[in-house]
């Protein structure tokens, strides 16, 4: 094929394999994004667009003492000279450098609307004005030139632009940076200037300074919006490894407010600071939605009273509401507390590197030392050149009469230049300076000024030589420079760091309040469509008593039948697992308490947004009681992958949840079971096979939460897992139900005890070829199961009405006669709530 290619007028056509060309092109694109757009340089802390904006403004003369200039003019210069991309992208970058809630030390000053913490958009660039801020002008652009940093050609070779700015402060740490490249991302938090300077000076004095001492000098990020860091562990992880999760919380206080005229005063939570990058308007809307949906209780009103003086969001509480309880719910369910995921990734020598705090500081110090050496060498060269000229002028003035005589008798300038060089042993440059010297320099005052300049130049040259020849002196000058910048631009820390003692005291106080005011026995009811309803025990018992007059064993149509009922306490946690293998927890008290007529709320709506909004995304759930936490959790997927993990690993999960099991494409988490060591498991397939094996480290070892797990048993084609049952005693029975409505209770002793991964035993014989097993469940004699058909008919059937049969006995018992095409879809074991003798009185209100 290559032989048939013709020679085109544009040159030789070279055949290239498609995969080679795609690989090369994508790699070039990725490196262009990484180096040229998304990641900052560790030396000046800037991405190319920010560097080009600052340099273009420097060229325009927009210093802090000059008038503001329209942003459109700046954007035009940046686009035309250095950054040929979209104007909106350049303007967005410029706006962020102006916003004092985005940058800890804004690099630009602005006039006009540059947006707000409510995520309001900035005005168009033709309306806003800007100029360089003092901190950027002095710490980033001072002494910029080809002698200090390297310059390269711009995109059309018509201009020169700096590769890096001669930064005198580590801007990467001061203002932080965020960006998403190809296959990597960076998210560096901002820091306090004074603390960073103290850390730099300490590293200059003691390069082997311990991490503990360095972390004392730089204890954590300092966000422009303030807030409070509540756990230093994430900070130290980020500082040591370059990656960590930093929990940040807003600042609140309690006040007594008067809601309206003639109304009693109420306690209110006043929010004065939000975590970094949290949209205030969006946060208020989220809180309002939680209150309206019943997920956040105790709040009477919320309003924004922020003004030019600062932020003030008032959350009025209902009477007799504990503020600590509401605050705890706000921390858990909203961004009043959230984790800042620090990824300290930057370009070092053109290569992306995940760096620790020490490495970033050392990289800046090395760069600053190199910059100072280049600057001092350039200054030394200029000083020596000027000193050479001044020395020649002084020598000529000392021999003024002879000088005048040579000039009077010289026929032309060239002859005069040669004669001066021979007479006074001067260089060509010195002779040119003497010949260009005006007559006023012959006065006594001018001669004295030349001598003074000569002395100053000599002293300056000696100082520069001392700095260049002695590294200790150079480092002293660097420390002096840092202290001067700290004195000029340093300020107080805005973000508070909570101590370990304060955090422990807060946890203990909240635990006491929750134990005193929140603990209440309730009943949770879970429906087929994914709704959950919370009722008091008495209200549930009354509702059950009203339903006893109808025969619940008969299949009747029901729009959304209750599949499972669990007794719980409002202080306990509910573990929810989704079909994609994610785990989330929420306190039972967070589930809204509903009335008799209400069907409840979708359980998925109570989970974070990361859980999705589809009710069918929920695979299963479990109340984390103290007794349950002593067990292990067995996770079983639809395609038979099984793993065992400690249930205690799923306590107190963050809002983001965690991955409980990794799944292959096409698989999903389907079943969970609590077990203890040396117990047994029985797993059934849709083909009626049953495998039974002991729970031990050989069959089913405890695994990490991100593991996939081994295969529980071998599945035939078109076969899937339908359930998993915990076996505690050898005489236990398991309940098996088919899609056609056949059921039996099988004594587990009739099933061979084998090993995990086997083929199992045929335990259910089908009367119809199209029938298949849909469920396996424990078989308590005093229990009942809830059965739902494909036509949304539902019945509660006592388990003791189903006969016991062996594995070889044909299954003849049928739950009911079904209509043509009607099949059983769901079978769940209904956990009954004990009906105590003390029933509610007639005047109890049903909640």
Explain what this protein looks like in three dimensions.
The chain is α+β, with helices and mostly antiparallel strands and 847 residues long. Helices cover 32% and strands 23% of the residues. The strands form twelve sheets. Strands 30, 31, 32, 35 and 36 form a five-stranded mixed β-sheet that branches. α2 packs across α3 and α3 packs across α4. The radius of gyration is 39 Å and the shape is elongated. The N terminus and C terminus are likely disordered.
Concise synopsis of the structure shown:
This protein is an alpha+beta fold and 847 residues long.
Please write out the topology.
Elements: H1 18-38, H2 48-59, E1 69-70, H3 71-81, H4 87-98, E2 108-111, E3 129-132, H5 134-139, E4 151-153, E5 160-162, H6 171-175, E6 177-180, E7 185-188, H7 193-205, H8 211-217, E8 228-229, H9 232-241, E9 243-249, E10 251-257, E11 266-273, H10 280-292, E12 299-304, E13 313-317, H11 323-333, E14 337-343, E15 345-348, E16 351-354, H12 357-398, H13 400-409, H14 413-424, H15 428-435, H16 444-469, H17 471-489, E17 496-497, H18 500-517, E18 521-527, E19 531-536, H19 537-547, E20 556-557, E21 562-569, E22 573-578, E23 582-587, E24 601-602, E25 618-624, E26 632-637, E27 642-646, E28 658-659, E29 669-675, E30 680-685, E31 689-694, E32 721-727, E33 733-738, E34 743-747, E35 753-754, E36 761-762, E37 773-778, E38 784-789, E39 793-798, E40 824-830
Helix pairs in contact: 2-3, 3-4, 7-17, 12-15, 12-16, 13-14, 14-15, 16-17
């Amino acid at each position: 094929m290559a032989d048939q290619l013709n020679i085109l007028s544009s040159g030789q056509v070279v055949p290239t394999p498609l995969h080679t060309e795609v690989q090369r092109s994508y790699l070039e694109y990725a490196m262009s994004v990484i180096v040229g757009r998304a990641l900052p340089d560790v030396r000046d802390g800037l991405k190319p667009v920010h560097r080009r904006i600052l340099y273009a403004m420097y060229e325009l003369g927009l210093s802090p003492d000059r008038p503001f200039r329209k942003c459109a003019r700046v954007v035009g210069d940046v686009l035309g000279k250095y950054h040929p991309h979209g104007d909106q992208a350049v303007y967005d970058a410029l706006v962020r450098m102006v916003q004092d809630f985005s940058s800890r030390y804004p690099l630009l000053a602005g006039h006009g609307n540059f947006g707000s913490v409510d995520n309001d958009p900035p005005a168009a660039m033709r309306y806003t004005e800007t100029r360089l801020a003092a901190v950027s002008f002095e710490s980033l652009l001072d002494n910029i030139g080809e002698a200090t940093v390297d310059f390269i050609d711009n995109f059309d070779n018509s201009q020169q632009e700096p590769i890096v700015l001669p930064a005198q402060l580590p801007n990467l740490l001061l203002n932080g940076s965020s960006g998403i490249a190809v296959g990597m991302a960076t998210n560096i938090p901002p820091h306090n200037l004074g603390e960073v300077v103290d850390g730099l000076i300490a590293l200059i004095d003691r390069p082997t300074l311990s991490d503990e001492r360095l972390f004392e000098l730089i204890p954590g990020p300092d966000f422009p919006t303030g807030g409070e860091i509540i756990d230093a562990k994430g900070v130290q992880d980020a500082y040591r490894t370059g990656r960590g999760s930093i929990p940040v919380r807003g600042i609140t206080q309690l006040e007594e407010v008067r809601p309206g005229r003639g109304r009693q005063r109420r306690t209110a939570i006043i929010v004065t600071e939000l975590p970094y990058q949290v949209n205030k308007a969006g946060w208020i809307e989220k809180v309002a939605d939680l209150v309206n949906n019943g997920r956040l209780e105790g709040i009477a009103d919320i309003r924004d009273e922020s003004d030019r003086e600062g932020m003030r969001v008032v959350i009025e509480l209902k009477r007799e509401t504990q503020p600590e309880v509401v605050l705890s719910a706000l921390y858990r369910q909203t961004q009043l507390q959230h984790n800042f995921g620090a990824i300290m990734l930057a370009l070092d020598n053109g290569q992306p590197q995940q760096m620790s705090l020490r490495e970033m500081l050392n990289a800046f110090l090395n760069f600053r030392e190199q910059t100072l050496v280049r600057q001092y060498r350039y200054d030394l060269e200029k000083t020596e050149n000027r000193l050479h000229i001044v020395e020649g002028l002084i020598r000529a003035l000392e021999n003024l009469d002879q000088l005048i005589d040579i000039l009077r008798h010289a026929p032309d300038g060239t002859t005069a230049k040669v004669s001066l060089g021979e007479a006074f042993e001067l260089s060509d440059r010195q002779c040119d300076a003497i010949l260009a010297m005006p007559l006023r320099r012959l006065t006594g005052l001018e001669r004295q000024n030349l001598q003074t300049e000569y002395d100053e130049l000599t002293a300056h040259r000696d100082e520069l030589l001392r700095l260049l020849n002695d590294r200790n002196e150079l480092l002293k000058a660097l420390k002096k420079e840092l202290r001067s910048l700290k004195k000029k631009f340093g300020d107080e820390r805005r973000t508070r760091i909570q101590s370990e003692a304060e955090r422990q005291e807060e946890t203990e106080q909240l635990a006491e309040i929750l134990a005193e005011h929140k603990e209440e026995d309730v009943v949770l009811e879970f429906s087929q469509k994914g709704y959950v309803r919370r009722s008091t025990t008495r209200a549930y018992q009354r509702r059950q008593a009203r339903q006893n007059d109808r025969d619940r064993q008969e299949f009747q149509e029901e729009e959304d039948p209750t599949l499972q009922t669990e007794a719980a306490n409002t202080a306990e946690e509910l573990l929810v697992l989704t079909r994609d293998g994610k785990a989330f927890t929420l306190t039972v008290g967070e589930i809204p308490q509903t009335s008799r007529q209400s069907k409840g709320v979708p359980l998925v709506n109570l989970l974070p947004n990361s859980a999705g909004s589809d009710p069918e995304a929920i695979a299963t759930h479990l109340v984390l009681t103290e007794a349950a936490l002593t067990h292990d959790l067995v996770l079983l997927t639809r395609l038979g992958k099984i793993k065992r993990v400690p249930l205690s690993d799923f306590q107190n999960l963050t809002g983001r949840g965690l991955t409980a099991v990794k799944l292959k494409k096409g698989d999903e988490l389907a079943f969970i079971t609590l077990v203890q060591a040396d117990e047994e498991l029985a797993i059934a397939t849709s083909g009626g096979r049953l495998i039974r094996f002991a729970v031990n480290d050989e069959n089913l070892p405890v695994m990490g939460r991100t593991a996939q797990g081994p295969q529980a048993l071998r599945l035939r084609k078109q076969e899937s897992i339908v359930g998993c049952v915990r076996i505690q005693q050898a005489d236990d029975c398991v309940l098996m139900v088919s899609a056609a409505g056949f059921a039996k209770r099988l004594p587990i002793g009739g099933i061979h005890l084998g090993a995990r991964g086997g083929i199992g035993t045929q335990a259910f014989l089908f009367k119809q070829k199209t029938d298949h097993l849909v469920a396996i469940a424990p078989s308590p004699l005093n229990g009942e199961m809830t059965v739902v058909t494909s036509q949304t008919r539902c019945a509660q059937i006592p388990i003791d009405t189903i006969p016991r049969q062996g594995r070889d006995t044909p299954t003849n018992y049928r739950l009911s006669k079904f209509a043509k095409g009607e099949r059983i879809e769901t079978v769940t074991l209904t956990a009954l709530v004990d009906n105590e003798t003390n029933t509610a009185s007639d005047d109890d209100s049903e909640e």
